[in-house]
Specification:
By secondary structure, the chain is mainly β. It is built from 1 helix and 9 strands, in the order H-E-E-E-E-E-E-E-E-E. The radius of gyration is 19 Å and the shape is globular. Bound molecules: copper (II) ion and zinc ion. The site of copper (II) ion has 6 residues, from strand 4 and strand 7. It comes from Pedobacter ginsengiterrae.
Amino acid sequence: MKKYLLTLAIASVAFLSACTKAEKEIASAALTETADASKTIGTAKFYELSDGKIRMDLEMNFASRADSNVAVHFHEHGDCGDMGMNTHGHWNPTKENHGKWGSAAYHSGDIGNIMLDNKGQAKISITTDRWSVKEGDLKNIIGRGIIVHGGTDDYVTQPTGNSGPRVGCGVIEAVK
Ligand SMILES: [Cu+2]
Ligand SMILES: [Zn+2]
């Protein structure tokens, strides 16, 4: 009996440490069409990595936009009303110019253009230290809107990239 309990104890410790090592999902956003919020077009999931950075896995499934290059940005507000206009402008906590992700200057949610295949599907991952989920942190992404545009970001026009209409929208929510 004692030996059995010891084995059980070792097994639970191994299980617990495996859990703490795994990436933790900390936030997510369900993207829907702005014209019809019952139509899901994608999902963004956010994971906290062991080095403190955050990774977003974005999966698009937007059949009506198949074979097109669509711009994706984080916008200021988590309100998809009025065809996405209620999200207001690009979230810009660092007061930089709009630009291409990874270039000299860009907004912290300038995800950029995503090429959808002939089914309207795409998958991208981005890892960054520009985001956090801490309350009161300038970098906090919780409650921000994610907008999918009907056009392509030129990465130059200020402050929007001239990306066209807002065809998809979601709100980044904490996963507890
Ligand atoms: Cu935008
Ligand atoms: Zn921008």
